[in-house]
Amino acid sequence: FFSNLVRGVQDVCEKNGYSVLVVNSDDSQEKEGRYLKLLYSRRVDGVILTVAGYREEEFPEEELSLLKKMNIVLIDREINGMTTPIVKVNNFAGAYSAVKYLLTMGHKKIMYLAGIKETKTNQEREKGYLAALKKAHINWKKELVADFRLDTAYQKIIHHWPQLKNSDELPTALFAANDLMAIGALKAFAQLKIRVPEDISIIGFDNIPFSDCTYSPLTTIAQPTYQMGQKAVETLLKLIDKKKIKKSVEFETELIERDSVSRWEV
């Protein structure tokens, strides 16, 4: 997600004579706060920010006041109490199309591998998951929370799957809220000797650069991350020049069919 996004940011910045400083919070509140203070002290022209995942609901007042003094464009995640411009995708529609695709392939027991629960990104994707099931009149639903992380998804599948296998709660398909978690699940299933897609189908969200290099190549929902990076810079430059801007720019997603989903025959 972020590698393509940063490339889009850099390309537009270079064309307009701006340098780019990239800092990574690793979804850490402490790191994010420290970097925001650093950027403010350096008097940067503007900031493109993806908020650390646990902070959307309660952003510290000190850092909120700093943000209000800077030119800010958000990507993907919102901040309560701020009307800052944001560039995002239609997370609800993307998740809905992922689950609808699994349903058309005959799956009726579809597990949701959730991201960070507090983020609106995860909440919208979960709503899309539930709405698609409701539309199909399917009551079976189950989720594991893996915080958008590959290693957490791997550990959760390794831990929970043997328990699910000995119950009637075993899903036939898994919708992961991002590709990293889907790849973590692929790794876990390989260790557990569960075949993908013969024994379980998996669909991700993002279409990160190496998602087609997995085994099996990952079916996923693509976000136009490069274009999102470009649009974020274009919006920020207008903000710097005090020009009229859209407060919210929303991109649509696209289903990318590969080999990690197969038809489920009862």
From TrEMBL:
SUPFAM superfamilies, sorted: Periplasmic binding protein-like I
Pfam families: Peripla_BP_3 (PF13377)
Hydrolase as UniProt keyword: no
Keywords recorded for this protein, A-Z: DNA-binding, Repressor, Transcription, Transcription regulation
Transcriptional regulator LacI/GalR-like sensor domain segment(s): 99-261
GO molecular function: DNA-binding transcription factor activity; transcription cis-regulatory region binding
PANTHER family documented for this protein: HTH-TYPE TRANSCRIPTIONAL REPRESSOR PURR-RELATED, LACI-RELATED TRANSCRIPTIONAL REPRESSOR
Protein name: Transcriptional regulator LacI/GalR-like sensor domain-containing protein
